[in-house]
Amino acid sequence: MSVPIEFIEKSGITRTETRRHLDDIEHHWQEAPMDGKIYGRSLGHWIPIDGAAPALFEITSFNRNPAINELGATATITFSWQFDNGVPTEQSISGLGILANALRTVDAPGIKENTTFTLSATDGATPVTRDTSVVFNAPIWWGTVTSLTPEPHHIQAMTKRVAAYSNFTVDLSIANARSCFASAMSNPIRDLRDTIFNISQWDSFDKLDNVIFTLADGTTTIPYRICIRNIVEDTGGGTVGWNVVF
Question: How confident is the model at residue 17, as a pLDDT?
Answer without folding.
Answer: 46
